[in-house]
Design brief:
Structural class: mainly alpha
Shape: elongated
Strand content: 5-15%
Number of strands: 2
Largest sheet: 2 strands, antiparallel
Number of helices: 5
Strand order of the largest sheet: 1-2
Length: 126
């Protein structure tokens, strides 16, 4: 009764006291940090909108959405440059099975098709 509820309350307080060390970033509905747009743009600019995998460079400012920033460890809140990789949408779509699935539907699939049509990218033969 009384003892366990006090214990639970103490556990919760201890857990809350630990929380500040593991600073939880404020994220959008997709799990990206609020400043992700800016970080992504600056990272892509610093890599001259060039894919670190296949080497394609996108020079047309209207096509810059074809160059994306990938989180190597899968944690969208870890924006340490060591965790980021500049990839064209085709290389990004082929990172792993999760990415293949995500780029197979919705807006990503449309963008990927546009990219392949415009830049004659052929499917990775794997």
């Amino acid at each position: 009764g009384q003892d366990s509820s006090v214990f639970v309350k103490l556990l919760k307080q201890a857990k809350d006291a630990e929380a500040p060390q593991k600073k939880k970033a404020e994220v959008d509905i997709f799990g990206y940090t609020k400043d992700w747009e800016k970080i992504s743009r600056e990272f892509r600019e610093s890599h001259n909108y060039t894919c670190e995998e296949c080497g394609i460079t996108i020079e047309d400012p209207f096509d810059r959405q074809f160059i994306q920033v990938h989180h190597k460890n899968g944690d969208k809140t870890d924006n340490n440059p060591k965790n980021l990789k500049c990839l064209c949408i085709n290389c990004h779509a082929n990172v792993d099975s999760t990415h293949k699935k995500n780029f197979n539907r919705g807006a990503n699939a449309i963008l990927l098709d546009d990219f392949k049509r415009k830049y004659n990218k052929i499917e990775n033969k794997q």
